[in-house]
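Hi support team,

I submitted a single chain yesterday and got back a structure, but I'm not sure I'm reading the token output correctly. Could someone confirm the output below corresponds to the sequence I sent? I've pasted both exactly as they appear in my results page.

Thanks,
R.
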Amino acid sequence: MKRTVVITGASDGIGAAAAKMLAYPGDTLVLVGRSPEKTRAIAEELDADYYLCDFSELEQVRALAASLAQKYPRIDVLANNAGGIMADREETADGHEKTFQVNHLAPFLLTTLLIDNLVASRATVINTSSAAHKLMAKFDIDDLDAREHYSPSTAYGNAKLANILFTKELQRRYGDHGINAAAFHPGVVGTNFAAESTPLMKLGYGPIAKRLLLSPEQGADTLLWLATTVPGVVWTPGEYYAKRKIAKTSRQAQDPALAVQLWEHSDAMVTAV
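Hi R., thanks for writing in. Yes, this is the structure output for that exact sequence:
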């Protein structure tokens, strides 16, 4: 059966690699990226549809969701893969800390705006998280925008923890309605996700270091597996994966009350005034 697969952060790195591996004849592949040149080039290479969206502006996310919902009544896979780590604390035009917005609030908003399409399609929703949530997060539900305490690594770890909590609460709320959600850790991959981060982080993901890191194709492997296999049979919805296996998370990632709180806070933060 023909499927519609939407991948965000598809202009580079893991997203671009996943798009190339998911470009099956007959399927509708929809790429979302920030860079006009890169996104267009990959879309043309794969004969895929594409949309431009900067996740640091929630109005662009709302416009993207409206366009996707109208053109694709059926969405079989939504891969929330866009993300990054920033350097100094920066607030978006929406008034939120940029790392948290780009990595969590924007995909949360996109997913919830598309929820009717996703439920009707019995869709798989895949959220790119990271093992950084265990090493870097200092999660404070009352300081999600990091106004009291900020560091680039902590902001990133908090956002990646939010990805897992969001996955679990999405599954709790909509699993019985047909949604199958999963989060995954791609590994330490040589991509450009740290391009806006600190000099040390840039060095850690620079040209020399990339020789020692996983390739984008290796990093996309678990995403590909989740997107192409049967949830509930091959993998368990609501879980966090690494290397195609359920992986250990931090204690906070297993807190159902915290997942509910995060959903409610996130909903309030993305509500248009």
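A quick pointer for reading it: The longest strand covers residues 28-33. Let us know if anything else looks off.

Best,
Support desk
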